[in-house]
Every structure is written in C-alpha cells, then in structure tokens.
Amino acid sequence: MFGTTLVLALRSIRRHLLRSFLTILGIVIGVGAVVTMVTLGKATTSAVQASISALGTNVLQVRPGQGFGRGGGGPRPPDFKEADVEAIANQIAGVTAVAPQASSSATAIYNGANWSTTINGTTDAFLIVQPWPLAAGRYWTPAEEAAGKAVCLIGNTVYQNLFRGGDAVGQRMRLGNISCDVIGVLTTRGQGGFGDQDDVVVMPIKAVQRRFTGSQDIRLMLVGVDQAYSTQTVQASITDLLRQRRTITGGKDDDFNIFDTKQISDTLTSTTTMLTRIVAAVAAISLVVGGIGIMNIMLVSVTERTREIGIRLAIGAVAREVLLQFLVEAVALSCLGGVIGLALAQLVILALVPLMQVPWTFDPQINLIAFAISAVIGVVFGYFPARRAAALNPIDALRHE
C-alpha cells in the first residue's frame, strides 16, 4: 500500500513541476544555507587551529610591553637580554626550551629577482619549541650558530619568488647588503590568521643581531612548556621571575606580556563556533518558512482535489489511506527540497573554499541532520492538510465543484 501511495504522490508532484519547485524553494535555501554555514564554519575553525598549531603546542610568547604594541604613550619598555633567556630556561620548572628571536626586514635578492621579506634570528632551541621540518637541505650547526655565520633557511614563499622551483640549497643570495648562504628550505605552513607564515628567512640570532639589528636586544621569547605542567603555572612563574629581573615592585604594572597559544586557540575556536551556530540558526529560519509554504500548497491541493478525495472515499478507501497519501506527498516534497539543498550546498562550498583559503571537508553528520530535519518539516507541516483531507465527508466532497 505504501508503494502505491508513494507513486501517487510522485505523480501529483510531477503534474505541477513548477509549483512543486516553488513550494520547496524555502527548504532548498534553508538546507543549503545551514549546511554551507556549518561546514565553512568548521573549516574556518580547523584553519585557525592549524595556524595556531604552527606556532607550537604548549608555547608561551613573551614580549616587552603590555600588548603587541607599546601600550599607552609612555617610553618603550626595555627589550629582553640573553641573561633573561638563560634565567627562564634554568630557573623555571616545566620549561623545555627557550627560543629568543630578533627580527628585521630586508629585500632578498637572487639572480635578478627580489622579494621583501622578514628575517627572524633565533637559536636551535626554536626547533624544539616550534618544530619546522625541512623540505630540502639541513639546519645550521652549533658551531655556525656560535660564530653567527650568515647561513639561512628560507620559507616556501621566498623560495618560490626567488628560485622559482629551482635548486636553492647551496646558493648564495643577498639580504639587503649582506650575503647569505642558503642551507635549507622549510616546509610549507601556508596562510593563516597570522599572515603568510612561509614569507620568512630564518638565521642564527647572532648573525641577525650583528648584521641587521645592531644590538643584542631580544624582542620575543618562545617558551616551550612540558606537557606534564600547566601553562598557567609556568606563566605565573615566568611573570614573577621577570618582575624581579626588571625590578618591577609593588603594584606597578608589568612592562611585558605573556601569551598562551593554547588559550588563544581555545578563544578563537569558541568564538568561531558560536558565530557559526548563530548564522546557522538564522539560516534555519528558511526551513520554517519552507515548511509553511508546503502547508499552504498542500491546503490548496486538498481544495483542488476534493472530488478526487470524495471518489476514493466513496469506493472504499479509508480515512487513514487518504491521510497517508497527502502526508507522503508533503514529505516527498520536503525530502526533494532537502536533496537539492544538499547538492546546492556542496557546489557553494566548493566555490567558496578557495576564496576563503580554508580546507574542504565533507561532514556527513550535518548533511544527514539537515536532510532529516527537512523530512521532519514535511511531516509536521504536512499533517494538518492531510488530516483535513482525511476528515472530508464523501457526500460533501462529491458535490464539490
């Protein structure tokens, strides 16, 4: 019986294709919008997490100042010294390594090609705190680091713009007026919330201090924290130590700041998740509108087919069969809208992923949930018209003009 009812429902839909399509348009838009927003929201969250993971897990970033800038209109807080790095590494429990960084910018030049980039000077502790595999070449040796030799590792962006896919390892390029031997090419990290992470040249910190910054000051320390320790506990210990070393007493504010990458990741993830839910909830309103459209058209259909319903009841059909026929028709319309909405969502996602520079993912859970909701809407909003059709009096229905 159900098979026959389904065939009748599909025939009725096919007889009025345009009206059926306009009826399910709200469902199509609703399902498509919900799936698109949730999928892109999750993709954005994954991209943010990957970008922050590239900074290292369980890593504290220590900078002078009360924020990323100076903070306020006072004098610039003093930079850190090498002794500060050694004190944190030796006196704070739970610290695996401390990587100081000195940064500058210069134009990299090779064989007539040039590219403006950032130069980061650091130590081999950087590879412990923030592991970065090589695509080719090698890391510098302890002897090269101690001597401040002008050797460098280049990011993929620098490599592509200067060497254009050729062999870079063993070549010599210029950074401003300084010659530098390329000993390695870093693997790609890609774009993220922190800009192009591959647009960088990494050198021994002494080479950068001597040849670019002209001082031994350190503007950033990356502190690796053992997994067995709480980053908050280590952060508090570093704060106490630096306040003591920088002679900050009483109720004076810190002239340095410490950022926990895990806290940043958790905050950004929760924010993007909340925004995704809000946008998806707004998009879900289209599903309700689509359900109202289905109910409206089904009521019109009941009115148009009153004589047909009267004939079916007169020749022996029971009210339950009439109710099932119209209910199946409403659910079929809604499910058809759900399928079209899912297909539309995938097309939109494929178009937007390259523009947003986020990874493409297929989430079967949200697709199944969206389709199930569309089917439920067909049942909920189709029941009233179906009940009305089943409650018709056969004699009154046959008299209907």
TrEMBL record:
Residues 20-240 form the MacB-like periplasmic core domain. It is found in: Cell membrane. Its main location: membrane. This is ABC transporter permease. The chain crosses the membrane at residues 21-41, 278-302, 323-353, 365-384. Keywords: Cell membrane, Membrane, Transmembrane, Transmembrane helix. It comes from Sphingomonas aurea. The keyword Transmembrane applies. The lineage of its organism: Bacteria, Pseudomonadati, Pseudomonadota, Alphaproteobacteria, Sphingomonadales. Belongs to the ABC-4 integral membrane protein family. It is a multi-pass membrane protein. InterPro entries: ABC3_permease_C, MacB_PCD, Macrolide_Exporter_MacB. Residues 281-394 form the ABC3 transporter permease C-terminal domain.
